[in-house]
Amino acid sequence: MNYDFRYAAHPADFKNYDTKRIREDFLMENVMVSGEINVVYTLYDRLIVGGAVPTDKPLKLEPFEELKADYFLERRELGIINIGGNAKVTADGTVYELGYKEGLYLGSGNKEVVFESVDPKKPAHLYLNSATAHTKHPNNKVTLDMAVVAEMGSKESSNERRINKLIVSDVIPTCQVQMGITELKTGSTWNTMPPHVHNRRMEAYLYFELPEKEAICHFMGQPDETRHIWMKNEQVAISPSWSIHSASGTSNYSFIWGMAGENKDYSDMNHLTQQELK
């Protein structure tokens, strides 16, 4: 299990970052690595993001030094969404099977969490979001047919998309973690446009279902001082609460959004127009 640590940045300082610094602080490049668990601990609402790709051996979720915990979920909750082959997740002896685009919520207090692939030749790609938890909620598997669905955008504005709200308070109880999948329709490339910000929570995006030779241009920063990050398939962009989070791709794609903070109301956001961006 590998981990990295990211400090928070003031938006006034962020304005002076070059491309290298932006990528170092806000991009997680190696998320899904065969036979490994890779996570980033960010000081934006202390969200941990990462991926697990079990192959011929199970992978156990272990605590690392900065957690100062006896086990990973001692004071944390965990959201998982599978974007690979069929998976088994065992939490304190209970086995949950996850197919493609199926999610699992694990509450605080689960002492042993183990990831496995049903077929090592078609390994699971398990995307992980973990936030601090003030109480214990029950473990819950969530499938797409349980999701709260919103159809957004249009073909004319190149942002026709389906938002599947999976691990959200309207579906299951959580402390902070909120996760879902947005799927762009064929011919659409823009996500989260018109843009918004929400000071009460941060967000992270994992882009996937992007063809190998295509790319994503993720936009971030304050609305009047934007920057961009070029990204590949199955990489994560970390978005502070003061930043927009939007992208356009050279193909349509999907992404998993995950949020943590003091407010779980999905509609709680400050909307902006395209004309306000600079």
Automatic annotation (TrEMBL):
GO biological process terms held by the UniProt record: D-galacturonate catabolic process; D-glucuronate catabolic process; pectin catabolic process
Gene Ontology MF term list: 4-deoxy-L-threo-5-hexosulose-uronate ketol-isomerase activity; zinc ion binding
The record's free-text note on cofactor binding: Binds 1 zinc ion per subunit.
EC numbers, comma separated: 5.3.1.17
Cofactors required: Zn(2+)
Gene3D superfamilies assigned to the protein according to its UniProt record, in alphabetical order: Jelly Rolls, pectin degrading enzyme 5-keto 4- deoxyuronate isomerase, domain 1
Reactions that this protein is recorded to catalyse: 5-dehydro-4-deoxy-D-glucuronate = 3-deoxy-D-glycero-2,5-hexodiulosonate
Pathway: Glycan metabolism; pectin degradation; 2-dehydro-3-deoxy-D-gluconate from pectin: step 4/5
UniProt keyword list: Isomerase, Metal-binding, Zinc
Residues the entry annotates as binding Zn(2+): 196, 198, 203, 245
Taxonomic superkingdom: Bacteria
A Pfam cross-reference name: KduI
Enzyme class: isomerase
Family classification: Belongs to the KduI family.
HAMAP family: KduI
Described purpose of this protein according to its UniProt entry: Catalyzes the isomerization of 5-dehydro-4-deoxy-D-glucuronate to 3-deoxy-D-glycero-2,5-hexodiulosonate.
Protein name: 4-deoxy-L-threo-5-hexosulose-uronate ketol-isomerase
Species whose genome carries this gene: Marinilabilia salmonicolor
Taxonomy of the source species: Bacteria, Pseudomonadati, Bacteroidota, Bacteroidia, Marinilabiliales
